[in-house]
Amino acid sequence: MDGKLKQEKQQAMQIQNKAASLKLRSANEDVKLAAVAISFNVRLRSSDMPTHMQEHALRSTRSLLDSVVSTKTTTKTRPKPNPTLLARALKKEFDLSYGPAWHCVSERVSGRS
User: Fold this and answer.
1) Is the pLDDT of residue 113 over 80?
2) Where in the cell is it found (predicted)?
């Protein structure tokens, strides 16, 4: 009986250690994602995707925004990207990368097909 109790305690400790490791890894991923968002000057309001997919979304958004600026060169004003086109382009990118059924919302405009 004593050996069984000792084994259960060891298993409980292993579970606690794994949970602590996951929390630390999650916190590190959150910090990395925040740094990417700041460096790209974009904001991710809400997501239930894994961190690597969120980073992909941030990189794709920055790339799309930069392509709008480079195609519409003006000296006085910076062009505003079309939220509808941005949402559609991000949805298409994720459909191609991760399969269909993605939704993207950009300023109350959703990219659906």
Assistant:
1) no
2) Cytoplasm, Cytoskeleton
